[in-house]
């Protein structure tokens, strides 16, 4: 079965998915939404669930903590979003510390020679791939 990963930001959400055997993560999209309108992201999750029929059996969500382990404003936003997910979907949710996932994505895209506009198009999707790879590395050893 597949896992769908999300890297939620205030105005965009990166999506990534594993292959059926949960070995390889692949980026799906960098979804732009109206700030604070989580229903748009919930609808996009539903879209991906429909695209992959009954193959997705769980969500992996980036959970942003400070280096100290404390919660940030973004952490609180993600927690609100997770509660909304729980009311709409009956899927297990795994939280992965996403510390540095966006920074890693930015560095990867910069080293690939992409300009700022292109990096912006791909960074959240790639961050979701890194979150999903971290999940696979930890849980699928």
From TrEMBL:
Documented EC number(s): 3.1.-.-
Q: Answer yes or no on keyword GTP-binding.
A: no
The cellular component terms of Gene Ontology attached to this UniProt record, alphabetical and capped at eight, are:
cytosol
Keyword annotations of the record: Cytoplasm, Hydrolase, Nuclease, Ribosome biogenesis
Q: What does this protein do?
A: Could be a nuclease involved in processing of the 5'-end of pre-16S rRNA.
**PANTHER family in alphabetical order:** POLYNUCLEOTIDYL TRANSFERASE, RIBONUCLEASE H-LIKE SUPERFAMILY PROTEIN
> Could you tell me what this protein is called?
Putative pre-16S rRNA nuclease
Protein source organism: Mycoplasma nasistruthionis
Question: What lineage does UniProt assign to this protein's organism?
Answer: Bacteria, Bacillati, Mycoplasmatota, Mollicutes, Mycoplasmataceae
* Encoding gene (name): ruvX
């Amino acid at each position: 079965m597949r896992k769908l990963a999300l890297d939620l930001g205030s105005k965009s959400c990166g999506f990534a998915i594993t292959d059926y055997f949960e070995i390889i993560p692949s980026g799906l999209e960098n979804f732009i939404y109206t700030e604070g309108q989580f229903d748009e992201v919930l609808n996009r999750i539903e879209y991906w669930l429909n695209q992959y029929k009954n193959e997705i059996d769980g969500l992996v969500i980036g959970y942003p903590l400070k280096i100290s382990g404390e919660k940030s404003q973004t952490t609180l936003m993600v927690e609100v979003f997770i509660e909304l997910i729980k009311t709409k979907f009956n899927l297990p949710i795994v939280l992965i510390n996403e510390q540095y996932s966006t920074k890693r994505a930015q560095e990867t895209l910069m080293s690939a020679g992409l300009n700022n506009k292109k990096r912006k198009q791909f960074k959240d999707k790639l961050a979701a791939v890194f979150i999903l790879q971290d999940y696979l590395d930890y849980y699928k050893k």
